[in-house]
Amino acid sequence: MAKSSDAGATHEVPIYNLNDLPSREVRHGIVQRVFRGNAVAIAYNQLNPGMATNPHSHDFEQVFVLLEGRVKLHVGDEVHQCEAGTVVRIPPHTEHWAEPPLPEDGVALNMDIFSPIRDDYFELTAYQTDTFDQ
After folding, report:
1. Which residues of 61-94 are buried (b: 16+ CB within 10 A; e: fewer)?
2. What are 44-71's pLDDT values in tens digits?
3. 91 CB contacts (<8 Å, ≥6 apart)?
4. For a tag site, which of 56, 98, 102, 121 has the least CB within 10 Å?
5. What is the spatial distance between Cα 126 and Cα 117, in angstroms, rounded to a whole number?
6. Residue among 90, 109, 113 at smallest CA distance from 31
7. From CA 11, how far away is CA 43, in angstroms rounded?
8. By three-state DSSP, how is residue 105 classified?
């Protein structure tokens, strides 16, 4: 752990490497790693050509950020052609899903940001034992 100094106080600040976080295959063709703060969860997803799709909705908002590659993102009745750098805010209770990347485009990498933290992500972040007083 790294130490950071703030007005003379020293705090333990854990440092993680995304590549070392535990991963899981959410469904065929999607490999996910999850990191959390006290009030936010961030899922880093590798979206592979041929991945299984899963139209779904949930009670909280989601921010979808495409870091690499290209995918079609369905949000409600809209279809967005996304390329690296695309950011989409998905409202609560709105059906959404990504189509698999085309084989010629290769793997796409996206980050999903959830607030509040999804209850089903707490188990995925059990490796994180740190909390910060607020």
Report:
1. ebebbbebbbbebbbeeeeeebeeebebebeeeb
2. 999 999 999 999 999 989 999 999 999 9
3. 61
4. 56
5. 13
6. 109
7. 26
8. helix
Do 83 and 70 touch, CB atoms closer than 8 A? yes
Residues 105 and 123: their CA atoms lie apart, in Å, by: 32
Contact by Cβ (8 Å): 35, 125: yes
Overall pTM > 0.70: yes
SS3 at position 123 = helix
What's phi and psi for 105, nearest 5 deg?
A: -90, -20
Structure token digits, residue 6: 């703030």
Q: Please give the single-letter amino acid code of residue 17.
A: N
How is the chain split among helix, strand and coil, in percent rounded to 5? 10, 50, 45
Residue owning tokens 């950020």: 65
pLDDT digits (tens, 9 = 90+) for 21-41: 999 999 999 999 999 988 899
Q: How far is Cα 110 from Cα 68, in angstroms, rounded to an integer? A: 7
